[in-house]
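#data-curation
PF: Archiving a pair of folding outputs for the training set. Convention for this channel: one message per protein, sequence first, structure tokens after, nothing in between. First:
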Amino acid sequence: MGVRRLAVTFALVLSSACGGEPARRARAGREARRAGVAYVGGATCRPCHAETWSTFSHTGMGRSWYPLTPDRVIEDWTTHNTFDVKATGLRYRMFRRDGKFFMRQSLVDPKGRETAVDERELTRVVGSGHHSRTYLVAVGDQLFQAPMCWYTKDAVWDLCPGYEENNDHFTREIDRTCVFCHNARMERLPGKRNAYAEPIPQGIDCERCHGPGRLHVDRWGRGETPTGEGIPRSSIRAASTARLRMQICFQCHLGDSKSTERVARIDAALEDWRPGQPIAAAMVPFRFSETTPHDFGLSAQVDRLLLSRCFIESKGRLECVTCHDPHVTVYRKDRPQDFFTSKCLGCHAMDACRAPASARRATSPPDDCVHCHMRKGEPSDHRHAEFTDHWIRKRIDEPQRARATFGVEPYLPDEFEALPAGRSRVLPRTRAHRCARTRFRRCCKSRMWRDAERSFRESIALGFAKPAAWFFLGKALSAQGRAP
């Protein structure tokens, strides 16, 4: 079955299985958004939701962003703390000095001497450390990513994802798309792409999934119990259907950097998206390369789940929260060994398994469904880590093969078609062509540039005549050997 046909099948399942929201609740949600309901911060939720707040603070989301301090050290800063990039002659050294943490970049000449030294203090960490940690440097009020990451499984320093192909040194900006997934709501300073208003949150919080809490907090503060009929309840529990609940997870767990591109809409601020809205209200996902059984991306959990027969045939019963409680870490020590198997048995009978008894006993724990039906491996876009491929399938031992490149297509077509006709559909596709232009193999680039040219011309005809549109149209024409 082709990727396009699969995508259409998934979209139909998502839309038909769950039905529409009640008009009253949808109306309340729109009114809340129009009213500009304020964010209050996760700490405000703690007094009333102490237990949930406590368990969530131990999850990867709850520990996604924080200052780099001595009490949070997990890396080797003293012994195996030097990394040489043989292809370029760059050397990195990570070290501590006076209670602070630094990364030193230099070029090494033939005699082993350092030149072109650039040393930066590391101020913040992105990532819980379950798999890796990324480090930020501050230049004034602007934030940038450092080139080296710590990888927990292998206990090594290595280049961060993407730096092996394009080393931005200390100039990779921490822009709005970075913070949208890796932290609670951050307000950008006017006129800057990577500078944010203080205080900067420390980790993803309750409002990332539940929406802004001001009305909810105020109503409870007045002693009024929400009834589910007003704006406050809508702003906290906006996702009233399985389809929209899953799209909360789409924020960060949809997208494979080797085959997809999530394009933020130019006609809607990314920061204005609220849980309970379709994800296409904020961003439109496009696929430019084939999905294969072997390769999967670090953040492609939803992409892969949508491929699963379990998901398709469940008709909406299987969703992310079927197996994952977002408030509790999957790494907790008291998690029962058969926790995920018990989830599978919610739909499947144990005696339906056709595997030999010896093979079933050999898994740890015995009769572990995940061991046989969800492949574990290193993501194609992240080294030194092992993740679970969320494509649930009968066989997980398919041989590796190269991905085929086929063009830029929306892979949630039902959501795409729900966008208003005209610029709302054309602009995301235009920007997807721009983002994906460097990812196509040589044999496919001529077709990609022709498609890009048509897309840019259509955008301009619809009124998007900004300099960027003309600039990239010129690039598309030049790439084809034609004069602008």
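PF: Second:
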Amino acid sequence: MWFAALPGCEPWLARDEAHAREIAVRLNGQDAHAVDRDAVGRSALGDLWDRLPDSLRSMWVWAKMVWCVPSPHETIGYSAHALYAILAGRFPETDLRDAGIDVSGVPVLERHHIGGSLVPFFDARDLLGDQG
């Protein structure tokens, strides 16, 4: 396995050494510490951001970072559609349950590939109610 990262930042999984070097070149031109991830999430998801549990906020930040990697669907177990769903405020069933959010009785409207399986995704807005 190959990884690329700025010092003190989460590593990004790469396909091979050449891909790791490509990621490193892209990252080298950025100051990851200057990015306000909280502001980025709030800008993208609006009031939903404030209602998300910390674990789902972390998952969103992770998806945002992975989305920037060339060919994200080739580097990790999440399809590009699954990453896009997370960035739009829709999360996998297991992660919602782990965050203490009950999904029982809520109809599954979309499924995306994660690790070779088709996993139910739910919109966090539907599950957290109108708290905004």
